Fold each of these.
Amino acid sequence: MAVPGEKRPPPPTPVSGGMARKLILALFVFLSAMLYKQIQPPPPKIPGTPGGPPVTASRTRLSDGRHLAYLESGVPKEEAKYKIIFVHGFDSCRYDALPVSKELAQELGIYLLSFDRPGYAESDPHPARTEKSIALDIAELADNLQLGPKFYLIGFSMGGEIMWSCLKYIPHRLAGVAILGPVGNYWWSGFPSNVTWDAWYQQLPQDQWAVWVAHHLPWLTYWWNTQKLFPASSVIAYNPALLSEEDKLLMPKFAHRSYMVRIGDMPQIRQQGEHECLHRDMIVGFGKWEWSPLQLENPFAGGEGKVHLWHGAEDLIVPVSLSRYISERLPWVVYHELPTAGHMFPLADGMADAIAKSLLLGDDQ
C-alpha cells in the first residue's frame, strides 16, 4: 500500500528498438565467443618446446622444419637386402611396427623403419596435413635416412589407408606394398551405393555420427569427440563391442604395450593432445579426397613388385566391404581375406612373418 506523501521511483524508461537490437547483438556475440572457445582445440604440446614433453627418440628434420621421430629394427640398413618402412595405425606410434621375428629379419636381411606420424608421440604436428602430405613425408624420411631410391611399405589400419596415397603420389619410390586392414573413406568416388552403405551400417551409430562430423564439419571434430552430452567415437573409447572373437584374444598384446608410460594423465602416443593425432587422423582419413583408390594404376606393370591387400572378414572396426570391392576392381592387387580374423590379425602368432615373406618373396614361398 502506498504511504501518503511518499515518492515512488519513476518507471523504467522503455527500451528503444535500437537499444534492443544492440542488446541482442551483444548477447549473440557473447554466446558465439563462448561457443567458439568450446569448439577450439587447445594448442598442441610439441615435444622439445617449453611446456611440451621431452624428446627421447631419434628424430629427423624435414624440409619444412618439422621433425619425425623414428625407430630402426632388424639388421643394420647397410647390410640389409630389404628395407621396409612401416606406417602405424590410429592411436599408435613407432613402437607398434609389424612384429617381424628376429629370426626372419636375420634370415632375409630385413631392415625395418617405423616412425611416429605427425602429431603422434614425438613427431611434430602438421596442422595442414592432407592425404598427400603424409606420402611426401615418407619419401623425405627415406631420403634423410638414406634408404636408397626404392623401399617397401607396410601400413596398418589408418596407416593402411595411407598406402593408397603413397601409391598415387610416390609410386616411383616403391619396391612393394602391403596394406593391412585399411580404413576406408565412405565418400570415395566409384563405389556402388550398396557397397558403401553396407560398410557404413556395419559401424555403431555413434561412429557413424563421428565419421559424418569429421567429413562434413571438420571444425567441429574436437568438440564432438570431447563433449559429454552423447557418445562420441567408440574407437577412441576402445569400446569392446568392436572386437571380434579373435580380436578379444589378441587385444591384450595391443593394450599392454610396454612403452605406454604415462605423462601426467595422457599416454605417450597422445601426449601432444588428442586433436593433432586422433582427430586430425579422422579429418584427413574421412575427409574430402579429390581422387579414389579405384583410379590408381598398377605401379608395378613390369612385374618388379606387388601390392598385397590383407583384411579380416570378421573385422568390426574397419568393415571389409570396401577392401573386397577394391580387390575386384584392381586386378593387380593381390588380395588376402582371412575368414575368421578381425582387425588385429597382424598380432596373431606367425602372421607378421607370413605378411613379410609374402611381400618380399611372393606367395609361392
Amino acid sequence: MHHQSVALKTPQFPFPPHLHHPNRITSRLLFLPISSSSLHTNTTTNSRCSAFSCRGFQIPVSNHPFPNATNSFAVKTVDVATLGNLCVDVVLNVPKLPPPSPEARKAFMEQLSSSPPDKQYWEAGGNCNMAIAAARLGLNCITIGHVGNEIYGKFLLDVLHDEGIGVVGICEEIDAVNSPSASYETLLCWVLVDPLQRHGFCSRADFSKEPAFSWMNTLSEEVKRAIKQSKILFCNGYDFDEFSPGVIISAVEYAVEVGTSVFFDPGPRGKSILHGTMEEQKALRQFLRMSHVLLLTSDEAESLTGIANPILAGQELLRKGVHTKWVVVKMGSKGSILITTSSITCAPAFKVKVMDTVGCGDSFVAAVAFGFIHNIPLVTTLALANAVGAATAMGCGAGRNVATLKQVVELMEAPDLKEDDEFWNELLGEHLDSQDVNFLSKMVLNGSNGRRNHVALQKVVSELLPKLKSSQLEGTLSS
C-alpha cells in the first residue's frame, strides 16, 4: 500500500509499496437468494440518500422463529454483518503527528483536505477491515452503513464488491434541499504516520458534537432483515461517531431479539463514551450487558472496569453481562486471552517481522468470529486469531492489505510462538486454583501442571490447517 508524505519536500515511503493486489474472488452474495431486481436505488427527489447509500440487498426473511440468542445458526444465511463505521482511509506520512488540542487537530485536517490526495493513497477503512478479513477466511459477510454518492463512496463500494462483501445501505426519507452536504458524504479518516511509525487518526466526526449521520433515527426494514439473517452483528465504539446512541442500541436489542449474536469492540472510543453524555453512558452499559462476545485490549478492559489485571477485568465483565459468553482480551505483542465463566484460555503471540499494526485488531476479531461460528476449540480460536493478526502485521496497512488466507496458511505451516514464561506465570499465578487454564505451548506433547493444561501448538496447527486449506481451495475454485 502507498503512503503519501505531507509537508515534506521529498516524499518518503516508510513501508514497501503494495506490489500485488489480493486475488479477486467472485461475489459471495451468491449465497443470498437475491434476484437482480433485489438491487434497487432510491429515486425519491426529497431524499438525501444517494443511489449508493440507499443501495440495499433485499434478504428474504425466514418465518422460522428466533425465541432466544441460543438458537441454531442453521436458518441464518449471513455469517457476519458489521454495523456502521464504513470509511475511506487516506494514509499519509507526516513529519510529526498533529497536536492533541481539538482546534489544532481540526486546522491540521483542514490543511490536509485542501489538497485531495491521489487515489493510490486511499484504502477501505473502519469496519471494512474486519469484513474483508472475515471474507478472506471464507465467511459470508455484509456491511450495514452509509456510503455517499461521490468518488470516495464509489471507491468503497467497488472495494467491497471485489471482496465479495454485500452492502446494506442505511437510508431515511427526509425533507431536505438537494444541495450537497457533508452530513451525507462518505466518511474520510486521515491515517497519519510519523517517522517512528506511530499512527494518528482524524476525521470530521472528531470535531462535531452530533453524530456524523444524525439524520438517521430508526432502523429500516432492510437493515432489520440484514440483522435477522446474520449469525453475528459486529459493532465497535466508532459507531457512536456516526449514529445516535438510541439507534445503536435499537440495533443491538433487535439482534438479541432475533437470535443474532452481538460482538462488541469498544476500541479507543470506549473511554470517551464511558465519560460521555448520559445517553452514551447508558448505551455503553447496555452494550456490555447485551453483547455475547466482548473484545478489547487490556487497557480498554481496565478503563471499563477499573481492574488492572486483564483476567480479573474479563471476569468482572462476564459477571455484569446478561448474554456474555466470551470476553477476549487482546494483549498486543504478548498474545491474547479468552475468558469464559468456566475457563481461562491463553495463547502467546507468533514471532513475525512487524511492518504495520494498523488493521491487526480488526483481523484478529474476524478470526474470533470464525471460531465462534464454527464452534472450534477456544485455544484453537485464539491461535487462529493471533495468526491472522500477525499475518496482517507483516504487511502494510489495512483494507485490501489485511492478511489473505494464503498468508495465514503459510504462517501456520511454520509457526513460532513468542513465549514469555515469566509474564504468563505472573499473570496466571493467582488464578490457577480457581479455574481451569488452557495454555497454547510449544510443548510437543499435551500435559498438565496443576490446573494449567498445556495444549501443544503442533496439535492445534494439525487440526486447523485442513480447515484453512479447505476454505482456501473453495475460494480458488470460485474465483
Amino acid sequence: MMQRRISLLLVLVIAFLFIAGTLLFGRKFPEKYNRTFQKPLTHNAHEAPRNQDATPPEPQWDNAAVHITITETGGSHDEVVAALVHSFGSQSRAVIDLYQLLPRYRITDIMAGFSLTNTLPRPRGPQEFIDHGIAKRRPDIFVAGTCELDIIKFKDQLTTLLADRKTYMYCVVHHADRWAAEELESAIRPWVEAGMVDFLTLSPHTAKFLKTQTISKWKTTSPSTIHSYVPLFPVALPAAPSGHGSDKEELSFGLQGDYDTARRDYKNIFVRLDSFLKTTSTTESSEESGSRDVTMHLLGHGKHPEVPDIVKDHVKFDEQLDYFQFYAIISRTFALLPAFASDEYLDRKASSSVPAALIGGVPLVATQKVLDAYSYIDKEVVWLQGEKESDLDVVGRILKMGPKERRKKKELVRRKCAIIVDQNTKMVEMWLEHAMEKIKKE
C-alpha cells in the first residue's frame, strides 16, 4: 500500500512540473519586448504611401537617443528646414542638430514653437559642422536639406560617415534636373551603392522627374529609393472670423511673386480690381450688400508697379515680412494667386506657393495642371480655374459667392494641412525604422 502511494505521489509531482514548465517557458513575451524591426511602407516615387491613416507601431529601435543632423547651405529654404525639423524632431528619442546658413524672417521663432521630443538648439552655421560636427557627435541620421549643395560642401565629412556605415542619409532634392550633372551623381553614387540614402522630393511631380528623367540615366545600376515629402509645419493662425456682426471676413485676395511687370499685366489687374469695387454683390447676405470693399495684397519684392489713384487705397504692398506676418496676412484672404516663374514648376521644380497656401489656410487659385503636378492637393481645397478662365476671372466668381461658402473652403484648407503634417510625422517614423535597421545590419 505504501509503495502504491509513493508511486502515485511521483506521478502527481511529474505532472505538476510538466504543466508549470509549459506555462513558464512556452509563453510568448509581450510585443513591446520584441526588438525586431517592422518593414517600412514602400511605394512608387509618384504615388502616395498606402494605408497612411493606419496607426503606426511604436518605434522598435533601441532606447538610446537617435541623433539627427539637418543641414541647409543654400540660405533660402527656411520653410523646408522648418518642415524637416518638425517631422524628424517629433520622433521619439530624436535629438536634432541644425546647421543652417541663413535663418531668415524669424523662422527660428516659428521652430521654437514646435512641440518636439527634445528642445531644438539654435541653428549653427555650416562651418561648425565641418569643424566639429562629426567629432562632437556622429549623427545616426543625416538630412541634407539642400542636397545639391550639401553633398559638395560636406564632401570630406560625408566620406568619413559613409566609411563607418553608421549613418543613414536623407537627400532633399530641390532641382530634379540638376542631378544629371556628373559631379552630383559621382558624389551621391557611393551612398546609393551602399544602400544608405533615400531621396526626398518636395512634390510628387518632381519625384517622378527625378526617377524617370534623371536617375534612370545614371551609370550606377543600384536601385534608388525616392519619397515625396510635402514641406508643411504647424503655425498658429488668427482665428477665422465668425461672420457675425463686426467679426466678418476681410474681403481680400493675395498675389504672390516678383513685382516685375514682365511677369504680370498689372495695368489689367488694376482695371479688374476697379471693376470688382464697382460691382454690387449678388448674394443675399446683408453683410455684403452695396459696393464691395475689396483689398488686393501684393506679397513679393521688387520695383513697385504704378498704381492708379482710383484703386490706390485698395492695394497693399506686403514685403520684407517675417513668417508670422506673412501667414497671418494670407490667412485673412479668400484666395492666393501664385506666379510660377516658368513651366518648370510643373515638372522638375516645386513651388513654395502651394505649401505656403496650405500653411496659411488659404485656398490657392489653381489650374488642373497644377493639381496634377501637386497631387497632394485636390479641388476641394483650391479654387479651380477653368480652361478658359484667367485667375482674376476666378476671383470675380468667388466674389459672387456668399461668405459662408468662402469660409467653408478655408476651413477645408486648414484641415488638409493638419492631416498632411500628421502624415509626415508618421511617414518619417517608418523611414527611421528602416534606416536604423539598415545601420544595425552593417
